[in-house]
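The aim of this short unit is practical: by the end, you should be able to scan a pair of folded records and say something sensible about each. We start with the first protein, listed as its amino acid sequence and then its structure tokens.
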Amino acid sequence: MTDLLFDITFWFAAPFWALMILAPGWRRTSAAVASPLICLPSLVVYAVLILPDFSGFAKELINPSLLGLQAVLGSDVGAAAAWAHFVAFDLFLGRWIFHDSRARGLPALLISPLLALTILFAPVGVLLYLITRSAWAAQSRLGRQRGGHRRRAQFY
């Protein structure tokens, strides 16, 4: 059962990733990823995996130690639960990047590779997105300032 839950976890998220990366401009993509509930199937898998030994997981998560976490996450159930956790939260972050980048007018060709990176290494993908977002905003401000100076110069 654990193997099956591990295997299906990513397949719950894959269609949403495919839409955000490969079809970001398609009108149905925004609707498909509009709700954070797209993460729900992976979160349910996580709950199904940890609830039978909730006290064992809680013990290690409330007062974590490296050895204790290694023991919990080193089991089949622990590894599958960690995978479901990663998939759910990576998708949540990817969804946020998708919506935030569209609201800010960042080009999909710039964002799609960052989303692909976020699937594999979410902290790195999010960090690079935040850097990209800041650089894009700075570039936009600079462009507006230059344009504004030109207009003022024309009136003097």
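Turning to the second protein, read its sequence before its tokens, just as you did above.
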Amino acid sequence: MPQITLGKAVGCKGVSLHSGREVGMEFRPAPENAGIVFHIHAEDGVHLLSPRPEAVSTTELATTISDGQAHVSTIEHVLAALSGLAVDNVEVHVAGGEVPILDGSARQVVEALRSAGFTTQNAPRRVARVMRECRLEKDGRSIVARPFEGFHVDYTIRFPHPAIGEQRFALDVTPESFASEIAPARTFGFLKEVEYLHSRGLARGGSLDNVVVVGDEGVLNREGLRFPDEFVRHKLLDFIGDMAMLGCPLLGSFTVACSGHGHNNAFLRMLAGEEGFLEYGNR
């Protein structure tokens, strides 16, 4: 399979989740074997950051990567969209240290990338294949990876709230299934947590426009849910984005329960760091 980049540059603007400021990002075509590279525009120049498991500096509320001088936050939805649509090479230009949260899902990023179109390149796609079972279980969270010639995720969540409860969703992730079944699922939070974060000056950009907020009586968003099981679908979206931190397409079958950004990153570091779990080659 050949590598793919964008047909032209395309941008998105919106509020950032943490600072609440208006921020923008632009996706630009990149050459073969460049991978996904974030171009962080800062006062001292442009910093280039590539997704890697060890580049993750914090997973509180969202995934942030850093080189010790510059950082970019809330990138999991962007990486999920790029991975879900099988885009190999792209420059992601960001000003303000954080990408826009948009509507809290990956749908608008998918729409922007599709509007730019895709260009087939001459180099073969490089992938990482899971070669044997890899498992990480801790504090009620678990991820199990097994060999599979594709990307399959079976995800279960459990929340002690009647609006959520236990939900399970499984999917073979392809560009088509990602765009229709996963990309529209929005991030969610509980009203008490949102109020607490706002009181601490955190998640200033979070609102009913970009977060599914769950109160004591249920979902507070006037339009309701996009899927009956939107909560687990969004967790699957986050997982796809966090696995894209490997830096190349990952092939395997993943059974996930109650995970989050921190556990996802710890698992990916183990998967990439221990000999024998992954094999790199063309697809």
